[in-house]
Hints:
Chain A has 7 helices and 10 strands. With 206 residues, chain A is of the alpha/beta class. At the A-C interface, helix 2, helix 3 and strand 7 of A face strand 1, helix 1, helix 4 and helix 5 of C. Strand 7 of chain A pairs antiparallel with strand 1 (2-3) of chain C.
Amino acid sequence: MLEALGLECVRGHRRLFRGLTFHLAAGQMLWVLGPNGSGKTTLLRLLCGLLRPEGGNVRWKGEDVRGSPDSLHADLLYLGHAPAVKDDLSSRENLCFGLAQTGIGVTPREADAVLSEFGLAGREMVPTRALSQGQKRRAALSRLSLGTAKALWVLDEPFAALDAQAVQLVQAHLGRQLTRGGCVVFTSHHEVELAGHAVTRLQLAQ
Amino acid sequence: MRLKVWRYASPPAFYRLAGNLAPWFLGLATLLAAAGLYIGFFVAPTDFQQGESYRIIFVHVPAAWMSMFLYIVMAFWCVIGLVFNTRSSFMMALALAPTGAMFTFIALWTGALWGKPTWGTWWVWDARLTSELILLFLYIGFLSLHAAIDDTRRADRSAALLALVGVINVPIIYFSVQWWSTLHQGASVSLTRAPTMAATMLVGMLIMSLAAWMYAIGVSLLRVRTIMLERESDADWVRELKAEQL
Amino acid sequence: MTALGLAPVLTAVLRRDLTLALRRRSDVLTTFFFFVIVVSLFPLGVGAQSSILRSIAPGVVWVAALLASMLALVRLFASDFDDGTLEQLALSPQPLVLLVAAKVLAHWLVSGLPLVLVAPLLGLQFDLPAGALGVMMLTLLLGTPCLSLIGAIGAALTLGVRSAGGLLALLVLPLYVPVLIFGAGAVSTAVGGMSVSGHVSVLGACLLIALVLGPWASAAAVRIAIE
């Protein structure tokens, strides 16, 4: 469903990679590995259409992403480095507004249910400013629970700064996404194992 | 023909071409400027209204024309760069900007020099001078935005978008300033109402304009070479050049 | 969970920005009071003679509105850019041009509209006649959205740049000149008792152009900034 064909990327004065090709079918997971500075985040942003590659192209469901980004964006859930939550809004508001932008309408009750699943029960109305780093990350990740309609999940370091319980939770959601026939592309410094799902590795060289 | 021209979009080829052409343009500019200034200061007749001081128009008007022309050319290169994503186009636009700004400044300064003996004040709020002032701000804005952004690609594209927005606004700004000056000053004071042109005066101004144009091309070609060297300093062709020169 | 179409998404963006502005009331009020203070300074600098005040009032109020706009614009995209919400906006299936327009609308409601409402009171300080006060409100009503729309382009271009505020002013103030000329010109003409229909039409035309081109250019600038 997701294809990268001969991708070439130059950032500043460095060529990060060239001739990068992969094919990701439904139900498959791609783990992008590499040392710091090797272009993992850049590759993920390229796949989302935030960056234009120097060469090559990205195809989603057969269509070139550059020509019709909207069809990719309709199926995309992206979690970047920054948690993408507003400090002045509560977790519930952040979740509702964040999902609304991607085209998913969520009632406050549904939002609260999901937030409590991610360990934020009782803190749904607290401004995000007052949450700890771990709580902020979990608030951002709660979108995974409601992003079931999105066929492509692109996650940059989803497991960073999470405790073991939260890691299990995220892995469970990833598993469910794959079972539904969706795709996941992610980066992580930690070993990831999902029962019943193979992980394709993509190693970026320095 | 189309394929041949596209070849020059590659920096090394363009670098060599620019280096070969620049001296010709600068030489031509010098000759034309000499001819134009000679006509302007010695051949053209004394104006019966303004005496000798009017001769400054031989510098003022060509500078003003060039300042506007160069902005349009700069915007053209910016559009090419944004549409075709060619690095050289952005470099060309960046090379033109300082020369354009310089001509704008010259136009303003010579306008002031003309105003003093003619109307007794160093600055006159007529339509053209005011528009030139705003044009100067547009050039400075372009250069400042480019300088303020560290990432070269983002700097190029942001400044290019700004130039595009500017070029669309320039006619609007010009007409609104025109309208404003007629409203506030009536028809009495105007630098654009030059004395009825004797043929020699017109010829002199045209030659000076041509000289300014040749100068602009020559200097921009030289400047774009410097920009290329700076940006592509890691590339093989630059390293080869450095080796050749050592 | 439901799928959302264009209108609900735009409403969500609008509501979000308005909510954020209300929670950071101090930012909004600062811009408002800046406008009031700048206008009030002029009589102190120029003298309180009513004939002088009446003639400078249109220009003073308009320039103050421009400067106050400038202050407010820095906030339009900056915080979204810093916390990653801006790139989420760019990844929305809905057109970024419309989402940006919604943000600019929210920004104008909070920063521009209050200026329109308070301007007549300030005009009274300058002894402007009632007819001119009405024209002042009307021209600001047409002009302040132009300021927001054009300024948004500058705000997007200067995201994450050092001393963005000063650079923003440099980039955007020249583009404001037509709006300033016709807006202030209209009020001066009204003081003189003549018809302002020409000025108002031009301002209306500026607004239409800004509505069509502004969000498009701002969206392009946002995309360039988040690369």
